[in-house]
Design a protein that fits this description.
- This protein is α/β, with parallel strands linked by helices.
- It has 2 domains: 5-135, Rhodanese-like domain (Oxidized Rhodanese, domain 1, 3-Layer(aba) Sandwich), CATH 3.40.250.10; 141-351, Rossmann fold.
- It has helices at residues 9-12, 28-33, 47-59, 62-85, 103-115, 125-138, 156-165, 173-177, 195-208, 231-238, 249-259, 261-265, 267-274, 278-295, 298-321, 338-351, and strands at residues 5-7, 21-24, 40-41, 94-97, 120-122, 144-149, 169-171, 214-218, 223-224, 227-228, 242-246, 329-332.
- A 5-stranded parallel β-sheet has the order 1-5-4-2-3. A 5-stranded parallel β-sheet has the order 7-8-6-11-12, with helices on both faces.
Length: 358
């Protein structure tokens, strides 16, 4: 094969995990919005430089802009080689892409190939990759989902985390979305990814699952925070067998107090989120909940939120949205310790380890 080789994404996909580096040469803002899993960002033009060159294209002419742009590109490629790849052996194999698979990735691929590395340039660039992800999520693989259902605070996320740690296949949509899926689910230390990035993370998970083994997933709604779960995936989940995870309400309060410590530490943050419920519960109820938060009566507040908000909402939606919930297997947790979740996870993993489960 002559290098740099220009390959489309369908040729690249089977060896995507075999490249020694996947190099995204787009600007830092383009990369932050979404990128191929595992890619590193090595801009040939950064955000500010793209503005400068683009302005020169419009205000002067293309020839002057190309000269300035070429100097910037050359400097940036040289810096990346010196700081990142100067010690790489001859058989180091990089994949390089930009937005459309044109000049930016072409410049990087040309230089790396001239050095002697077997550089691959992605034909069509990120746009081709993104088109593949969108199409793949419209027709996701037929997986054997086991849907973990349960009222808020019953430990669904903890159970998925432990299942994952013992080798079960898990699709944790809340973890991928950086959100706990409720009005209080925002994680203040971690912003949600873009919709495109969320879909990339889902696609990357789905493509790695063994379709002969079960995949454990939580009974999510169509949106996790601000992000939308792909429709075809949502439909497949809602038609899948369910496991009903149960936990006493006092233990659910304890669990939520542990998992939402950022709210107990900052009542103002909690009250801001509670204001989102005014239309559902009225100003008087929300003001009473504000008073509980401000006075430190968090266990009482959490208990009332479960009783008056979360549990009724769950009961209204679960039967309607998850067709097989009425036949759900019941899994009861006695407590919220690590040993309790490990025992529950091990029992599920062992029960459904066979490819012949129903």
């Amino acid at each position: 094969m002559k290098y740099p080789a220009l390959l489309n994404f369908m040729h690249v996909l089977p060896m995507l995990d075999e490249f020694d580096a996947i190099i995204d040469v787009r600007s830092e803002s383009e990369y932050a919005l979404d990128h191929i899993p595992g890619a590193i960002n090595c801009p040939v033009l950064d955000d500010q430089q793209r503005i400068e060159v683009g302005t020169m294209y419009k205000q002067v002419n293309s020839f002057e802009a190309k000269k300035v742009g070429a100097a910037m590109v050359s400097h940036n490629i040289a810096r990346h080689i010196e700081t990142l790849w100067i010690d790489k052996p001859r058989d180091w194999k990089p994949l390089i892409y930009c937005w459309r698979g044109g000049n930016r990735s072409g410049a990087m691929a040309h230089v790396l190939a001239k050095i002697g590395w077997p550089a691959i340039q992605l034909d069509g660039g990120y746009k081709a990759y993104r088109a593949h992800v969108s199409a793949a999520l419209e027709h996701p693989p037929q997986l054997k989902f086991k849907v973990i259902c349960g009222t808020t605070g019953s430990g669904k996320s903890r159970l998925l985390e432990v299942l994952d740690s013992i080798g079960a296949q898990v699709l944790d949509l809340e973890q991928l979305a950086a959100h706990r899926g409720s009005v209080l689910g925002h994680l203040p230390s971690q912003p949600q990814p873009s919709q495109k990035k969320f879909e990339t993370l889902i696609w990357d998970k789905l493509r790695r699952f063994d379709p002969a083994r079960p995949v454990f997933v939580e009974s999510e709604s169509k949106k996790v925070g601000n992000l939308r779960v792909p429709d075809a995936l949502m439909e497949q989940m809602r038609l899948s067998p369910c496991i009903s995870l149960t936990l006493s309400r006092p233990n659910r309060v304890r669990l939520l107090m542990e998992d939402y410590r950022h709210f107990t530490a900052d009542p103002a943050l909690l009250n801001t989120q509670l204001d989102c419920l005014v239309k559902l519960h009225g100003r008087e109820k929300i003001d009473a909940w504000h008073a509980m938060a401000n006075s430190g009566a968090m266990p009482q507040l959490v208990d009332e939120l479960l009783l008056d908000h979360y549990d009724p909402a769950y009961l209204r939606s679960i039967d309607r949205n998850f067709t097989l919930f009425a036949q759900a297997e019941v899994l009861e947790l006695g407590d919220i310790g690590a040993a309790d979740f490990l025992a529950a996870a091990q029992s599920l993993h062992a029960k459904y380890a066979s490819a012949d489960f129903s």
